[in-house]
Design goal:
The complex is a heterodimer of chains A (283) and B (501).
Chain A lengths: L2 H17 L5 E2 L4 E6 L5 H11 L5 E9 L5 E12 L6 E12 L7 H4 L9 E5 L8 H9 L2 E4 L10 H6 L6 E4 H5 L1 H9 L9 E5 L2 H15 L4 E5 L6 E4 L2 E2 L9 H9 L6 H10 L5
Parallel strand pairs in A: 1-5, 2-3, 2-6, 3-5, 6-7, 7-8, 9-10
Antiparallel strand pairs in A: 4-5, 9-11, 11-12
Chain B lengths: L20 E6 L4 H16 L7 E7 L5 H15 L6 H8 L3 E4 L5 H18 L5 E5 L6 H10 L7 E5 L7 H14 L5 E3 L7 H11 L13 E9 L8 H26 L8 H13 L9 E4 L1 E6 L2 E3 L17 E6 L11 E6 L6 E8 L19 E7 L3 E9 L7 E9 H4 L7 H11 L8 H18 L9 E3 L5 H8 L9
Parallel strand pairs in B: 1-2, 1-4, 2-3, 4-5, 5-6, 7-12, 9-17
Antiparallel strand pairs in B: 7-13, 8-11, 9-10, 11-12, 13-14, 14-15, 15-16
The chains are: A alpha/beta (283), B alpha/beta (501).
Bound molecules: NADP nicotinamide-adenine-dinucleotide phosphate.
NADP nicotinamide-adenine-dinucleotide phosphate binds next to helix 1 of chain B.
Amino acid sequence: MGVVSDIERQLGKLRVLEEADGMPELRTSTMTHIVWCPPEWLAKAKGTLAGLAERHPARTIFLIPESGRKSEVVARAELKGFQLPGMAHEVLSEVIQIRLRGDAVQHPGSIITPLLVSDLPVFCRWRGEPSWGTGELEEILEVTDRLVVDSTEWRRTPAAYGDLSALYERTAVSDIAFSRTLPWRRKLADLWPGIATIEKLRIEGPRADAELIAGWLRSRMKREISLTRRNAEAVEAIWVDGEAVGHGGDPLSSSELLSGELDQFGRDPVYEAAARAALPTPR
Amino acid sequence: MNDEANPLLEGLQLRRRPESCAVVIFGASGDLTKRKLFPALYALAYRKLLPEKFAIVGVARSPQTSAKFAAAMKKAVKEHARDPFRQDVWDALSRGMRYVGTDFADAEGEDRVGQVLEEIDAEYGTAGNRLYYLAVPPQAFAITVSEIGKRRHKEGWVRLIVEKPFGRDLTSALKLNELLHTWFREDEIFRIDHYLGKETVQNMLALRFANGIFEPIWNRQFIDHVQITVAESMGIEGRAGFYESAGVIRDIFQNHLLQLLALTAMEPPIDFTADSVRNEKVKVLKSMHTPGPKSVVRGQYGTGFVEGIEVPGYREEDGVAPGSLTETFIAAKLYVDNWRWADTPFYVRAGKRLGRRETTIAIQFQRAPHPPFEAIAGDGLRPNVLLIHVQPDEGVSLAIGAKVPGAGMTIRTVHMDFLYGGAFRTGLPEAYERLILDAMLGDATLFTREDEVEEQWKLVDAILGGWSRDRPNFPNYASGTWGPRSADDLIHRDARSWRRH
Ligand SMILES: NC(=O)c1ccc[n+]([C@@H]2O[C@H](COP(=O)([O-])OP(=O)(O)OC[C@H]3O[C@@H](n4cnc5c(N)ncnc54)[C@H](OP(=O)(O)O)[C@@H]3O)[C@@H](O)[C@H]2O)c1
């Protein structure tokens, strides 16, 4: 039996089991949510999904690449039931976990395509830095409407923003690192018009966040602004020409951030310009 | 500061956040404040949707200290809010909260409210902006409006949320409108109909105007008839004083039911601004003609069983006159006389102590003209119905005919369901949250305009005029049933029947 029919059979069985309690179940979906998830990210990704389930019912497909092993595809399907307050029905979300081994890593397309929920958007959350130019990225881009990354998970920032920008014409892209900086960007926007003459930006925070904030300011102001940075887990403080900016406010949780990305559909020109302007000069 | 020139604002997803203001609740010791308004304000605070500079002032006659009022409201929030209680959210909400015990009839009392508001402006930077919420009984309404009006603050904006009932007939509604306009402009007046704050009611507009497939068939050619049901299983819950003088026609029909009808029947507005939407609704109300006496039925519940428990009849409820002629049920056949709806009946019904609690709008389409199946195959086949569940189980379902698996061709009606909670698993906001926030933002789209209320009362007055000429034989339906037999007759005469579930 093929992997896809095996998954469908597993799901069918689970649905019958769920219905045994007599209550009709609902399977409303708003999207297919693919998670490209190298094994080292799996625990984290599942945590985020657990926090997300309340908001985005979806068929979630975890693709776990395990290269260097014998070519093989192993799949497991699960149903997650949610009781809704004030409703007799239970809502079911489907979570499918597919381990791609050996050569199968480069060919996820043929497995995902038959599993996509018809007519609904496909989001792919790519954990870690995308493997630019590989077969797996190409095939996933083929079926994805929106690629969601978090550039704080990358090793090659800011240079890798250049690789990312090559994808803009093919799919909408969002970067959770950029969304995370939203409260700070709002604070900086509040400084207008005083901030119009900014020359130097200093940030205490992760590389990606800092580069993106600087890129955002450059692209909005359409000129060079220098960045100096001290490392920290999250953005702790920002100085504009030596002057400290008030604190940006509480950061959102990773589930809240991803949830926000899953509500966006079109391209984000502000992000695209910011990431371009974050690239090391010459741009 | 010149915001338009600020290049940093693009894409910042700035939520509409209201300007600094003070919310003044008249009737702060009452039931509405406790069960709806504070839980809604708390939900807004929880989501950081309130302005940073904000304060609440409660006003009522009962004497109590601000601290005692705050403690009572905290308890109310713990009991009735949809979000978990968080001390930090409560602290932010209750910072600057004050209570003024005063009688509005007493001019000095009103001056004290003014004084407290000045202090709050100075202390919390609320900038003279005021949102008054009138949660007082109708008899206290006129005096409260005049006293607020006379003391209109010179700086900042003033907005006034007015609760139902808005008058008890056309004459009193006209008088109320006149009184309000003595002091306030129409765009400062927010007449609440909390049904309009419900997500599913707004979803009706999304369903109709965001989908290409419905609007082309949303007319007399494809729709056989529409049924709107606002059914409660509860009785009057100790509100005899109010109910005896209102009845279901003033409590539900005049406002909620006619609003649901107007949203169902209206033409597409050119945009989603307050006036465009309300213009279209008024046109519907204007084109409804007065139903003849045979097209309206009233009822009153007697004893019966609700959810397995025996309940008393209306006349046995505390505070109700033993020979009361107040109606607790209404059913009517209404027509919207325009190009889209000519000859398409809208059957509406509302009542207390009915078979179950449900508010629905059912759009029943014409039958398939010539099903090519054997007669027997189509026995289980009913016309398509698009059912909008307003409450409970908010959502939309479409009844369609489908083949029963197996040999042969047997057709059964099945439901395609879209339940709100199933697709967007966030708790739905309470109507009052949305409405209070909109009023703070000055957006009146989901509030009833002066001319809408007047049109609603015109229709109600015409029905009441007919009723005044004869004595109904009450009670005429048992609690826990779907109303009097005459309601069935009303629709059976047209060879149709009410939906049962
Ligand atoms: N409760 C609901 O769910 C609900 C729903 C829809 C609409 N409404 C409408 O909202 C309004 C308030 O309803 P409610 O249920 O909260 O009524 P309620 O429990 O009787 O409370 C009325 C409030 O108004 C004050 N009040 C009464 N008479 C007054 C007077 N002559 N002068 C000044 N203040 C007076 C009362 O406090 P003191 O006695 O201390 O002054 C109390 O705070 C009514 O118009 C009602 O129709 C209520």
